[in-house]
Design a protein that fits this description.
4 helices, 7 strands, alpha+beta, Pnp Oxidase, Chain A, seven-stranded antiparallel β-sheet, about 130 residues
């Protein structure tokens, strides 16, 4: 595993549309079972794109998804994890990003429940760089 990915707070995770157009998204990540993983909503577009094309690129970025010129771009493949693995990834994300989780994610989940929409179904994505 790459040390800069292990130490990164954010990575630009790029999936590809059917026509090959890249779609980058800044995500939190944690090392996970020989690769790296993050959580997202189960019905997000990035999950849909991954089901069509598991090829991805990742590079370290800032909170807004800006990649520094000359930053290393890693190519690899990604997969959507099962529910048990997703729970382990979510627990690791909560530990690493406890402040951000409690300030952003937990209140959003609470608002969803208060509005009667229930919990958003979440999924975890694991990627392995080549």
């Amino acid at each position: 595993m790459s040390t800069d990915l292990d130490n990164a707070k954010y990575v630009s995770f790029t999936t590809f549309k059917r026509d090959g157009t890249p779609v980058p998204t800044a995500v939190w990540l944690v090392p996970f079972e020989g690769g790296h993983a993050f959580t997202t909503e189960a019905e997000s577009f990035k999950v849909r794109r991954l089901r069509n094309n598991p090829s991805v690129t990742v590079s370290v970025c800032d909170i807004r998804g800006r990649v520094q010129p000359g930053a290393t771009v890693y190519s690899g493949t990604a997969e959507v994890l099962d529910a048990a693995a997703s729970q382990r990834v979510e627990a690791a994300i909560k530990r690493k990003y406890w402040l951000g989780w409690n300030l952003m994610i937990a209140p959003a989940n609470l608002l969803r429940r208060l509005r009667g929409k229930g919990e958003a179904a979440s999924a975890a994505v694991k990627f392995v760089v080549r």
